[in-house]
Amino acid sequence: MQARFHAPTSANLRRLARALRNGALVAIPTETVYGLAAHALDAQACRAIFRAKRRPANDPLIVHVLDRAQAEPLAEFNDTARRLARRFWPGPLTLVLPKKPVVPGIVTSGGPTVAIRAPAHPLARRLLRLAKIPLAAPSANLFGYISPTTAAHVRDGLGARIPHILDGGACTVGVESTVLDVTDPRRPRILRPGAVTARQLELFLGMRVRQARSRGSNTPKLSPGLLERHYSPRTPLVLRRWSGQLPAGVAGVLQRRPAGHPWKHLFWLSRRGALNEVARNLYDVLRQADAGRYREIRVEPLPAADSGGLAAAINDRLQRAAARH
Ligand code: AMP
Ligand code: MG
Questions:
Q1: Separation of 117 CA from ligand 2 center, angstroms?
Q2: Per DSSP, what are the bridge partners of residue 238?
Q3: Which of 34, 131, 189, 272 has its CA at 20 to 30 Å from residue 266's CA atom?
Q4: Do 4-211 and 237-322 share a fold?
C-alpha cells in the first residue's frame, strides 16, 4: 500500500468522508497534530488504527466530534464538562467522561471512560460535518515516535501502512490536546498537559485543577497511554542547558535563534522564544535533527517556572522524548 495525498478540495473531502463511513483509515490535519482517523463506532475500523500504528491495545483513542451535540450520545456529561465544552470547543481540550454503551470497547481499551474533543481545524470540521460520524483519531505516527505536524511527517511514518492522507499543511498548535479527566466534576484533573493550560482551566472553572503526576508508577492506571517514554526520536535525546559548545556528532536544539551567525548543527524552535512558536515547530525540528545522523540531540529545556502554562506541555513532551527505555 502507498498512501495517496489528497488536496483539500470539496470533491476529495466528500470522497474521504465516504471512505471513513465505510471503515477506511484517513490521516487528517487537526490544529494540534495530524490524526489517524477511523469511524469511532466501527470496532473493526478502530482495530485497524492500532494495527497501522503498532499501538498497544491498552492505549485508548480520542474520539473527535463536531460539537457537544455529537458528543452527548457517546458520554455521560456533567455540568462541569458542559461548561468546559461550551468555552473551549472547538479547540485542543479533550474531556474524559464515563462512556455510553455505543462506544466500542476497543476505543477505550476496555475502560469505563471515553476521551472526547471537538477539533478546531477547519478541514477536520468539514470532514466531520460531511461524514456525520464521530472519528477516533490518535496521532498519525508509529507508536512511540515523534508526533506528525505535516502531511509529509505522516507519510514518513505511515505512508506504506495507510491508504489516505488529507494534506492540510502544517498544524498551527503543534502539541497534543490537554487531556482533562472530568469524571468527577468537583475534582477535574489534567492527565496530559497541552495547549489549553492549567491556568486557563482554573481561571474559567474557579477551582483548583490537579495535575496527574506525569511520570511514575501510577500513571498507567490513570491514563494507560501516558508512557514515560514517548514522542521520541531514534537518536538519543538529552535535555541540557546550552553551553555554547557542540561536541562532534551532536546536534543542538535551542529554544530561540542564537544571536550572530547560526551554526551548522544547531537548530532552534523559535525566533525570539515565543512559546506558541516553540510548540508549533517542536516536532518538525526534532524530526529534522533525528534525520541528521547525529549520535545525540541535545535540547535546551524551557525554564520550569511556568508550570501552569504552555511551557508545561512542551517540557512534558521533551521529558518523555528524553526518557530511556
Ligand atoms: P494520542 O491521540 O495518540 O495523543 O493519544 C491519546 C491519549 O489520550 C492516550 O494515549 C491516553 O493517554 C489519553 N486517553 C485516551 N482515552 C483515555 C481515557 N479514556 N482515559 C484516560 N486517558 C485517555
Ligand atoms: Mg500519540
A1: 15
A2: 298
A3: 34
A4: no
Instruction: Express each pLDDT in 225-262 by its tens digit.
Output: 566 778 899 999 999 999 988 999 999 999 999 888 77
Question: What are the residues facing 35 on neighbouring strands?
Answer: 28, 139
Contacts of 274 (CB under 8 A, 6+ apart): none
Does the domain at 237-322 match CATH 3.30.70.141? Answer given as no
Determine if ligand 1 sits within 6 Å of the CB of residue 319. Answer: no
Terminal C-alpha separation, the chain: 31
209-243 in b/e form (b: 16+ CB < 10 A) is beebebeeeebeebbbbbbeebbbbebebebeebe
Break the chain into its structural domains and give their ranges.
4-211, 237-322
pLDDT at 279: 97
Angle between helices 122-131 and 10-21 (to 10 degrees): 50
**Confidence at 276, pLDDT banded by 50, 70, 90:** very high
Note the pLDDT tens digit of each residue in 66-86. Answer: 999 999 999 999 999 999 999
The overall pTM is greater than 0.70? yes
Q: Whose CA is nearest to atom 2 of ligand 1?
A: 138
Query: Does residue 115 line the site of ligand 1, with CB under 6 A?
Result: yes
CATH of the domain spanning 4-211, picked from 3.40.1050.10, 3.40.50.1010, 3.40.50.12240, 3.90.870.10: 3.90.870.10
